[in-house]
Amino acid sequence: MITSIPPTSEETTAEMSRSNRFFDTLNDPMRPGGKTRPRLFGILNLTPDSFSDGGAHTASPESSAEFAAQMVADGTDALDLGAESTRPGSEAVPADEEIRRLLPALKLIRTRFPDLFLSVDTRKAEVADAALAAGADCVNDVSGLQFDPRMPDVVAAHHASLIVMHMRGTPDTMQAPENLVYGDLIADVSAFLMDAVEKAVRAGVDPARIMLDPGVGFSKTDEQNMALIRRAAEFKKLGFPLFYGISRKGFIGRMYGIPCPADRDEATAQLQLELCRAGVEALRVHNIAATLRAITADGF
Q1: Cα distance between residue 67 and residue 151, in whole Å
Q2: Per the structure, how many domains does the chain have?
Q3: Do 278 and 232 contact (CB within 8 A), yes or no?
Q4: Catalytic residue among 168, 220, 249, 264
Q5: What is the pLDDT of residue 32?
Q6: C-alpha span between 119 and 112 (Å, rounded)
Q7: pLDDT above 70 as % of the chain
Q8: Does the structure show a pLDDT above 60 at 52?
């Protein structure tokens, strides 16, 4: 049940100020040569079963906040907090359990970093409502607003930002053969994303605060994942900032022969450079320091 009271004018003003500052900088060159460096979203998994580092930062809110502080020190622009694994084959977590995992860390991080842009990775309106009331600025909905029809209204009510991602099915069904067939991959993904944008805007979400994620690793084959990376520039015509989350994913391990997710940072960085060159505005990453070293060396 969605039970939180509407945000106060003071809370709304602070949230809108952080969002305005963040989105205002997305297209500003950050290097003397005029190249635009993508903004980095450091990944903070608050789950016991994440594919990469499940359980590593869940011992206490303090340990989660310490890891957040390390990513801030390493240079992250934002954090993306998630309390439900959406790896292939994973099952849904009840909303109350997701909230229990998420809120203590979120509240502590917000207290320690009052100006940091915070995104919450959730498909559930009830979880989004609680997180936004606790200080989050953005909802990262990997279902592209399919899972919970109440999500657009919750985001709009909080004057929050939104990331919509392309996915077919749910994490436990998304790699089924019927979800991997596309007539035209780029066109089909684009149509899905724009439908989600229309749904969000119709509910009152500010279109100037929406980012689009083509969904690498979600209902895609390895070849399709690579196409979404190599053809990222084609999504620029949609007119919204692009958000890509490819860090340490399984297709990278299969392509490069790296079975351990934590060993995939160098290979991840090589592909992230392609996204930088395509003009992608935001990257969701595990290793902030390694990513910054790679893209800085390339002039971003």
Answers
A1: 29
A2: 1
A3: yes
A4: 249
A5: 47
A6: 16
A7: 89
A8: no
